[in-house]
């Protein structure tokens, strides 16, 4: 019988407390899948340059279990690149992306697999609620998904994280996207194919702290918008046109006033506010162009996406026999 292969890819940055809790849960799920559905399961951990004991722990996990592969990057590249590095090393079959902190329950994996078997290529978990996250994070996340949904031409499903199963062909498609600024949610959307959503309750973090504070999230949002939309540039054009139109009308008013009532030197407050307003608008537009230009610059350097420190490949699969 031709057995399917499934690799669970996990990016981890300083997750020494979470991984030991997660590992047995995944193994249990993969064992069940192997027995019941004839799927060969593997786990691939990516250490995103952790500064704690995460890497020794991964080495131990890989040494103890032939189904576990571990990859260490040369430094912290961020979650998006760590995931890319992991996905690049999935040799065959489908890949499933999971957070290291247990917020995406491994027990849901069979549901993802079922959809995959139905013929879907991109099965993604859609969060019904976010426990253990403050109102500010929830509100900003909500607003972000609405904004990017409107701005981007590529479909980006709302409230969808990286918890996702990619079929072999979706994975192959994703691998062809080698841009440096990687907004994964958008890249998945770009790939397309048959997509299915699985609603799930997102659990609070099992241990440790979130690596994404508001500032990092804000930068991620900027990344997403500039990578997947040029609408802000167009908005700048319209803003410019609008201010030019207003300036023209106002100019006519001033000239008429001077002609009718004579040109008394007055209007210092108006002059100042007009100058400041125009200066502000110009700086905003310049900054906006700079955001895009900076990304173009990064892209043009053609650096590799990440560097690998150590690669410990898996030595076997979860076939359910052990
Ligand atoms: N992560 C990573 N590199 C980083 C930051 C985070 O690989 O630079 C991993 C982290 O270990 C976790 C996942 O990305 O597995 C999600 O991070 P986190 O739980 O902190 O984010 P949140 O769930 O709060 O959005
Ligand atoms: Mg988390």
From TrEMBL:
Q: How does it sit in the membrane?
A: Multi-pass membrane protein
Give the matching InterPro entries: Glyco_trans_2-like, Glycosyltransferase_2, Nucleotide-diphossugar_trans
Alphabetized UniProt keyword annotations:
Glycosyltransferase, Membrane, Transferase, Transmembrane, Transmembrane helix
Answer yes or no on keyword Repeat. Answer: no
Spell out where the chain crosses the membrane. Answer: 235-259, 271-293
Where is it localised?
Membrane
Q: Which residues form a coiled coil?
A: none
Q: Where is the Glycosyltransferase 2-like domain?
A: 7-171
This entry's Gene Ontology molecular function terms read: glycosyltransferase activity
Its Enzyme Commission number(s) read 2.4.-.-
The UniProt entry, under CDD domains, shows: DPM1_like_bac
Tell me the superkingdom of the source: Bacteria
Q: Which Gene3D superfamilies match?
A: Spore Coat Polysaccharide Biosynthesis Protein SpsA, Chain A
Principal EC category: transferase
Name of the molecule in the record: Glycosyltransferase family 2 protein
Tell me the organism: Lysobacter stagni
